[in-house]
Specification:
3-stranded parallel sheet; binds tryptophan; two-stranded parallel ribbon
Length: 329
């Protein structure tokens, strides 16, 4: 059984892209691996130093992951800030992390472009904290998207460097967890690319049915096919991709045939798609609401996760201190 670690951003609700991208795989993975999933609330301060409602957003994220099926009895589900041991490992790793390599990181360069008035040291050392998150549990696998590949590469570098500097074979170098075929890209409703928070084209699991309906009805289409069996342009293909995921097979077959015969009415297609998305999200949304109203349960989950994570983290920090040479008198 492999140990897997993944950090979850603490800002924003989950959209269908998150669900069918990472989350569905997390839910499956938790039964096959020793999983540590945490909400990266320390990290969020690198971009939001004075968050309006840190607790509220963390609570929402936790409730959403639970509602979708992450099982706190199976996986270790916790808040990063509940495991202060990670801050100590971060401090120790920072001593062997070099300004030059940190400054060259793509995500650092992107972020300082976005927030030129707040180029803080936490932003620079973001990959060091991320490495600490991972190697503190001696993870061998990390599920990451394209945008996190470089950070994971740096985690390997810091693990390797620690081993070399202190002449030990202590840390495992974490490898990317490859979902392979299972990773489907969910398109947005704006006719291009993928569903994303910053793109503003997402359908959220927590969206009310009326909102979902509005969003789907506004999705970009074209003036319709003019030739039989004509190749679908991206915006139309995107609607079918969504339909393939949330609707019955017969439903998408039905509309595909209409398209191929140039008989399609996009209004009907969208109406059906909205209905099927709503049928999919409604039980999840109700689950989220129920969990959000149960503070006792959330407290219990967070406590249980923190205890499991701290047991693993404090063992590592104790051994790392010994390796470096800290000793009690
Ligand atoms: N940087 C990741 C992101 O933005 C979140 C994260 C923090 C993470 N620590 C991690 C992911 C450790 C995997 C492992 O999505």
């Amino acid at each position: 059984m492999e140990t897997v670690v993944s950090g979850i951003r603490s800002t924003g609700n989950l959209h269908l892209g998150n669900y069918f991208g990472a989350l569905k795989n997390f839910i499956k993975m938790q039964h096959e691996n020793n999983c540590f999933f945490f909400i990266a609330d320390y990290h969020s301060l690198t971009t939001h130093p004075t968050p309006g409602n840190l607790h509220g957003s963390v609570k929402q994220v936790l409730a959403e992951y639970l509602a979708c099926g992450l099982d706190p009895e199976v996986a270790t589900l916790f808040l990063q800030s509940d495991v202060p041991e990670v801050a100590e490992l971060y401090l120790l790793l920072n001593m062997n992390a070099y300004i030059g390599e940190l400054e060259r990181t793509t995500s650092f360069k992107d972020k300082i472009r976005n927030q030129p008035d707040n180029v803080n040291a936490g932003l620079l050392t973001y990959p060091v904290l991320m490495a600490a998150d991972i190697i503190i549990h001696n993870a061998s696998k990390v599920p990451v998207g394209k945008d996190q590949e470089q950070n994971l590469e740096m985690a390997r570098k810091f693990a390797r460097r620690f081993n070399n500097m202190y002449k030990v074979k202590y840390f495992t170098e974490p490898q990317p967890y490859n979902f392979g075929e299972a990773l489907i890209k969910i398109p947005g409703l704006d006719g291009t690319g993928k569903m994303g928070k910053s793109e503003g084209n997402g359908i959220y699991l927590f969206d009310e049915p009326k909102i979902i309906q509005k969003k789907v009805m506004r999705a970009v289409t074209d003036s319709g096919p003019t030739k039989k069996n004509q190749k679908m342009p991206d915006p139309i293909q995107n609607l079918f991709t969504l339909m393939n995921i949330v609707s019955e097979n017969e439903t998408s077959e039905f509309f595909k045939e209409k398209y191929n015969n140039c008989e399609i009415r996009y209004g009907d297609l969208k109406k059906q798609l909205a209905e099927d998305i709503i049928n999919f999200t409604t039980p999840i949304r109700e689950n989220i609401l129920e969990i959000l109203s149960n503070d006792d349960y959330l407290r219990k989950v967070a406590k249980m996760g923190a205890e499991k994570a701290r047991a693993s983290a404090s063992k590592t920090v104790k051994e790392v201190r010994e390796i470096i040479g800290f000793k009690p008198f």
